[in-house]
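Box 3.1 A note on notation
Throughout this textbook, protein chains are presented in two layers. The first layer is the amino acid sequence; the second is a token string describing backbone geometry. Keep the layers aligned when reading.
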Amino acid sequence: MLKLFAFDLDQTLLVHGSIREKNREALRALQAEGKTIAFVTGRVLRSPQFLAAQAGITAYCVGSNGSVTATPNGHVLSEHKLDPQTAVKLIQIGLRHRVYFHFYSQDTLFSPYFYPERYEHLLAADTSYGMRMQCNIHIQKHNDLEKGADQMLKIQYSAGEDLELQNALMREIRAIGTVAVTMSGKGLVEAMAQGVDKWHGLKVVADHCGIQQEEICAMGDYLNDCGMISHAGVGVAMGNALSEVKEAADMVTGPFDAYGAAEAVWRLKEEGRW
């Protein structure tokens, strides 16, 4: 019987940037049955915490691809920062390639570039008083970036459609030898501390709650979701997922914008899995 349901956010649970009513209904049904819910994302920790509160959902939150895990009341269960010297190397890679990048602490996005479109997914409200964000946004001059390096949980580079640049970034990051590398979207290269991924963070939640591996359901769409989907008792790939993710999954549901996450929850209910 499934006890823990883990959801990626972007291109999985979120539709038009929020948890819409059809998905909320499925989450509320899980809560009513006493199931544990976890939001497992590459985003800064503050983002899943904000979205859970906005939707009225009690959820464990795993941020920065498993680098930090927190209980529903915000107590941090685990945190894996990059070594400051490694973090500086990762910053220098971004500067050398002149590629947009940002990195996260638990509650802050750091970047040398003020490109609001790059973090509009963290917009909480757009009012006459200006933008309000789900987390802190800290824009630093290039030579001041290292001041945030000791807080780095994850760094993301945006290579866009430039496959040559993407591959160059991957090669240089892997050459460091003490980092985990993944991708969360097309052209989005990400690095965390060695051994860290979404499954790592989700396992922290499961161990804290006394839940076994076979009692976990995990849903996602991209390469950074493959670990938790392949290790979970039931792995669910969204209809919009990459072929590699679908191959790792036990079930393929509808696309995210057709509320595939809710579809999977109800299908598992019909099968008597929860």
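The CA atoms of residues 10 and 41 lie 8 Å apart. The chain has a mean pLDDT of 94.
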